[in-house]
Amino acid sequence: MIEGLNIKTLDDVNVSNKTVGVRVDFNSPIDPATKKILDDTRIRAHAETTLKELVEKKAKVVVISHQGRKGDPDFASLSEHASILAKFLPAKVKFVDSIFDEKAINEIKGLKPGEVLVLENVRMWDGETKSASPEDHAKTPLVQSLAPLFDVYVVDAFSAAHRPHASLVGFAPVVKHFVAGRVMERELRALYKVRNNPERPCIYVIGGAKAEDTAEIISNVLGNNIADKILTGGLAANLLLHAAGKNIGELNVKILEEKGFLELEPELQKLLKQYPGRIVLPIDLAVESDGKRVDVPVDNVPNLPIKDIGVKTAQEYSKIIKESRTVVMNGPMGIFEDEKFSLGTKLVFEAMAASKAFTLIGGGHTIASASKLGYLDKISHVSTGGGALIEYLIKGTLPVIEVLKQYSK
Ligand SMILES: Nc1ncnc2c1ncn2[C@@H]1O[C@H](COP(=O)(O)OP(=O)(O)O)[C@@H](O)[C@H]1O
Ligand SMILES: O=C(OP(=O)(O)O)[C@H](O)COP(=O)(O)O
Predict the structure, then answer these.
(1) Which residues contribute to the annotated binding site?
(2) Domains and CATH numbers, the chain
(3) Ligand with the closest atom to the CA of 367
(4) pTM of the model
(5) What's the complex ipTM?
(6) 3-class secondary structure for 50-109?
(7) Phi, psi of 272 (to 5 degrees)
(8) How many A from CA of 98 to the centre of ligand 1?
(9) Cβ contacts of residue 371 below 8 Å, gap of 6+?
(10) Which residues, in sequence order, are bridge partners of residue 346?
(11) Which InterPro entries does the annotation name (predicted)?
């Protein structure tokens, strides 16, 4: 049981010799040219925890996941995922190229204890991605066909928990046991603490390129008094500086305009006024001039691309982080992919690693930057979620969490 949330976990069910459906999130980056999986982090995360435990406990394991969205280049079969999974599990791993037809059902019925069957990408069935209530999803052919075969249904896909899709919520009303897997459990324990009862000072660090969420994060995290301060980098910082009346150079304003971010400025101006001193903006920035990094004060930004927070800003952020007890970070401080502009992100990670704080990071690029700069193993909790993490930080819950709470049985 996860305290506070009252959600049942694998500790609350007997899975030995039982047929267990497991909704994982194997959704991985795929090379558009070769169609090969580029990063197996998510497959490994489920394999080394929930799936390994189920195999060791001699469950008959049926794995359900999606990969990409229909029409997108990364929409693909799960056959390669199954092969990768086999490398991480001490078990026979089979794959079936269907989801709930007779062939899939026969494969499930033929499973022996300790064996694993991966079903085809569940989004190949169009009914999967409709947003509906668990009760409505329970009437779909997916759930009607598979639920009678499952003794237990485990939801482990935290990174898809913002999607109330059929395979994520539809089994809840009809299976005997509907519980959280180990990946979900670990995420919920870490996130529940930082969202509800963080040790203080609690600092949020937001950067990256997706400034569309910035206003909502700030207003929720400060409005609910979750963070004491929000440190800003990336495009979020450029947008806030511009909203605060700073001249960030025409070229940088154009980038914000093209992404539609300027529309957020009235809301950001309100927030800057409402929370003085708690939304921390850079005091200097790094621009690129003739292929070189040049640090400039925010009052004197030339018309050159802003690619990182400045060194003085990074030092100030480091000081605040080192004195904190909780740090949540989403979004690199600059274009870390270019070594010259990875310094701001590096100094922030260095401070997180040196602090006594509980540190949590999430988001594909944020994790990639921590990994590239050598700090991944120094972070207390690396979330598997991108969009799910942001939505959780904003709302304090997710559709799938609500269903787990309601149907924990
Ligand atoms: N000042 C900046 N201008 C443009 N892009 C930036 C800037 N700072 C960071 N980025 C880019 O933001 C990207 C990551 O942002 P985002 O996708 O929001 O992160 P995540 O995947 O962790 O949620 C990186 O590729 C990085 O190069
Ligand atoms: O990878 C995912 O989200 P993320 O890229 O925000 O981490 C999830 O698998 C959700 O996928 P979706 O956004 O296609 O529903």
Answers:
(1) 25-27, 42, 66-69, 123, 163, 337, 363-366
(2) 10-183+398-406 (3.40.50.1260), 200-356 (3.40.50.1260)
(3) 1
(4) 0.92
(5) 0.95
(6) HHHHHHHCCCEEEEECCCCCCCCCCCCCCHHHHHHHHHHCCCCEEECCCCCCHHHHHHHH
(7) -60, -35
(8) 37
(9) none
(10) none
(11) Phosphoglycerate_kinase, Phosphoglycerate_kinase_N, Phosphoglycerate_kinase_sf
Which residues make up each annotated binding site for substrate?
Answer: 25-27, 42, 66-69, 123, 163
- Mutational test site, ligand 2, from 122, 123, 159, max ligand atoms within 8 Å of CB: 159
How many Å apart are CA 56 and CA 224, to the nearest integer? 43
* Ligand 1 center–CA 331 separation, angstroms: 6
Tokens (6 digits) for 196: 């509800």
Average pLDDT by stretches of 10, the chain with 409 residues: 92 98 95 90 96 98 97 95 97 97 98 98 97 96 98 98 98 98 97 94 96 94 96 98 98 97 98 98 98 98 98 98 98 96 98 98 92 96 93 94 92
Distance 210 CA to ligand 2 centre (A): 15
Q: Whose CA is nearest to atom 16 of ligand 1?
A: 208
DSSP 346-395: HHHHHHHHHSSSEEEE-SHHHHHHHHHTT-GGGSSEE-S-SHHHHHHHHH
